[in-house]
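In response to the reviewer comment on reproducibility (Comment 2.3), we provide here a single inverse folding case reported in full, input and output, so that an independent group could reproduce the run without further information from us. The structure tokens appear first.
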């Protein structure tokens, strides 16, 4: 690897990615490949912190891998792998868990939300989820982590874990910085625009999936919840319209002022169709790439196998050094 800065990010294979995942995270991954060394992972070990159907999880993981490639991740430029293929993540997870406090994990809002949602299965993995995320990042000594704003708290914790380890054992880990987009860091649900758009929402009209066809996308936007006002403008309290403006801005690169001008005097109906069309057209190449890739399982396998080999080589070095630092006897 050259001495460019290093990027790490991950996404859970918990279903087809939403427009939120795309705008908030994945679409920012491909352009970073030009300037940085990038490592991207399908984090299947994180996914099992909530109950998954094994058959579906396997399929979702392959699809997620194909999807990040469809969004422009080039396995020649970046390292792209499936988390469970690289054992060092679990190894480092344990070491870092011993530098993480119960109290700080208890404050994580994702844990609070998910344990309320899955009250019948508040397992230890759900609680220690952010430690594994810290291990993902620190195993490669990543400098920057591109994520949506909902992951900021987890990243703060990863920074604290790194700093605490460095204090205990001597400077070692790079303290990672979040890399959060200016527009679209939190895309909201189309049905409840005060809630984030999420893959695991039970209402199919709440989120746009990046593989939805054009008609479905337009239909979902037409049904999007707005307000009883008439004006297309970005203002406090207009959560639904603000969200549609954010989405439109993210896919057209127009700023809010330009959008307000474009739709001055027009109704919400016209605006919703325009947003739907812009999103569908923007996502068309992703859908085409995905169809091609998912039908070439041999190529996918070749890519994720090579990716895992490269990731293991790098992270193994980190883990060996960490084992020495904490005082484990050399195995060889
Ligand atoms: P789940 O619903 O299964 O928890 P999720 O949709 O929240 O999944 P993740 O796999 O947890 O998706 O997140 C992948 C990336 O997408 C993260 O960087 C996260 O910050 C980002 N992301 C998720 N939802 C949104 C959203 N609504 N807006 C912007 N970014 C988002
Ligand atoms: N928790 C993240 C997914 C994730 C991740 C990571 C993101 C797991 N490990 C490392 C960035 C870096 C989420 O999006 N829910």
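Designed residues, in position order:
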């Amino acid at each position: 690897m050259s001495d460019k800065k290093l990027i790490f990010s991950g996404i859970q294979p918990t279903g087809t990615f939403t427009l939120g995942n795309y705008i908030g995270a994945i679409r920012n991954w491909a352009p970073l490949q030009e300037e940085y060394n990038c490592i991207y992972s399908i984090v299947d070990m994180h996914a099992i912190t909530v109950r998954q159907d094994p058959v579906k999880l396997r399929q979702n993981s392959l699809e997620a891998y194909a999807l990040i490639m469809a969004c422009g991740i080039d396995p020649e430029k970046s390292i792209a792998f499936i988390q469970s293929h690289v054992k060092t993540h679990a190894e480092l997870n344990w070491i870092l868990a011993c530098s993480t406090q119960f109290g700080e994990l208890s404050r994580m809002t994702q844990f609070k939300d998910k344990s309320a949602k899955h009250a019948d299965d508040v397992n230890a993995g759900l609680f220690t989820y952010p430690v594994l995320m810290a291990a993902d990042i620190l195993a490669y000594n990543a400098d920057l982590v591109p994520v949506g704003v909902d992951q900021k708290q987890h990243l703060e914790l990863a920074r604290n874990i790194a700093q605490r380890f460095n204090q205990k054992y001597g400077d070692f880990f790079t303290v990672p910085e979040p890399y959060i987009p200016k527009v679209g860091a939190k895309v909201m649900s189309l049905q409840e625009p005060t809630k984030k758009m999420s893959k695991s929402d039970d209402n199919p009209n709440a989120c746009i999936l990046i593989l939805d066809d054009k008609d479905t996308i337009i239909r979902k936007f037409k049904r999007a919840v707005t307000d009883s006002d008439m004006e297309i403008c970005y203002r406090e309290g207009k959560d639904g319209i603000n969200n549609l403006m954010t989405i439109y801005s993210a896919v057209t690169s127009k700023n809010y002022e330009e959008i307000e001008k474009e739709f001055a005097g027009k109704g919400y109906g016209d605006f919703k169709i325009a947003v739907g069309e812009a999103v569908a057209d923007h996502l068309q190449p992703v859908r085409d790439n995905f169809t091609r890739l998912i039908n070439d399982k041999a190529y996918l396998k070749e890519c994720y196998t090579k990716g895992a080999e490269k990731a293991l080589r790098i992270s193994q070095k980190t883990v060996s050094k960490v084992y020495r630092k904490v005082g484990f006897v050399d195995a060889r």
